[in-house]
Amino acid sequence: MNSLDESFRPSCAVSKKPKYSRFTQQDLPACKPILTPGTVIAILLCIAVVFIPVGLSSLSASKNVVEIVHRYDDACLPGELSDDERVEFIQDAKTNKTCTRTFTVPKEMKQPIFVYYHLDNFYQNHRRYVKSRNDHQLSSPKNEFRTKSCEPEALDDNNKPIVPCGLIAWSLFNDTFNFVRSSSPLPVNKKDISWRSDRKNKFGSDVYPKNFQKSGFIGGAKLNDTMPLSEQEDLIIWMRTAALPSFRKLYGKIEADLQADEKITVVIQNNYNTYSFNGKKKLVISTVTWIGGKNDFLGKTYLSVGGTSLFVAVSFGVLYLIRPRPLGDSAYLSWNRYPNLDSFD
Ligand SMILES: *[C@@H]1O[C@H](CO)[C@@H](O)[C@H](O)[C@H]1NC(C)=O
């Protein structure tokens, strides 16, 4: 900038021109990979080599899971009932709701065998339902009266606080399952089925249920008033609300091997009302492997990513062999291919 320039410029103006530096000139050392056909094909092949075996092994692990899914909400009704009659049946405290189902084990099942209940069309993710709880109240007996977020299940008929308050606890699932194998009971272990962090930190070992499910409309299971919340694992599992309307929750573990073709009888207490909203109830019995329960999605996803990479790598390779081009040939640039056109607009 010379002194002549200076004299033409109003004194307040500031130069917009950036200072010269390698940063402003975009001249810093950088990784500028050249994607030659060789490197592209090699990268794609590497992806395929990693993803395809992972996909195959998780798919085969999923295939080895033995899973029995048994829908019982319709089978546990006395005959063909209309929708209204179903609701009437389940709401009547005097009807017999015991229901015996038998199924055959298709393949040998090694312990531990996980027992779940599966609900369909149950929106545990509804905004007002999810918020209808009070975590302070669950964790400490001092917070018994903190029931603000729990409406309409905050106070009982005598205006005493309900512990645990809120709709989630109120609607606790209350079907029970008792397994019998060749006329001797098959015990289900219901200990240590919830998250340890929930038992330790979220649900107090000195918080006991109070006024719970005692008055008003009964929404679900009752709780043992002499057992602290940290040991009520069915409640702890139920209160970890499901994100999707179709979900399963752990009921317990069977710690015995089941043989192929064995007949297992399960005596169900069909208490929970899913009939008024057309929900389905299923009992799921499943073994696990290193990927968890039956889930083909993971394996299929790995296989499709790996397969696509392999396919693209092979097609690039074939193209490269049939019609190779020199690298960085400027003859292929559009302004060289159509030299007579000034622009494309
Ligand atoms: C089970 O829950 C239903 C509501 O879904 C309720 O009407 C019924 O009284 C409960 N039964 C028992 C035995 O807890």
TrEMBL record:
<comment type="similarity">
    <text>Belongs to the CDC50/LEM3 family.</text>
</comment>
<feature type="transmembrane region" description="Helical">
    <location>
        <begin position="34"/>
        <end position="56"/>
    </location>
</feature>
<dbReference type="GO" id="GO:0005783">
    <property type="term" value="C:endoplasmic reticulum"/>
</dbReference>
<dbReference type="GO" id="GO:0005794">
    <property type="term" value="C:Golgi apparatus"/>
</dbReference>
<keyword id="KW-1133">Transmembrane helix</keyword>
<protein>
    <recommendedName>
        <fullName>ALA-interacting subunit</fullName>
    </recommendedName>
</protein>
<dbReference type="InterPro" id="IPR005045">
    <property type="entry name" value="CDC50/LEM3_fam"/>
</dbReference>
<feature type="transmembrane region" description="Helical">
    <location>
        <begin position="302"/>
        <end position="322"/>
    </location>
</feature>
<dbReference type="Pfam" id="PF03381">
    <property type="entry name" value="CDC50"/>
</dbReference>
<keyword id="KW-0812">Transmembrane</keyword>
<dbReference type="GO" id="GO:0005886">
    <property type="term" value="C:plasma membrane"/>
</dbReference>
<keyword id="KW-0472">Membrane</keyword>
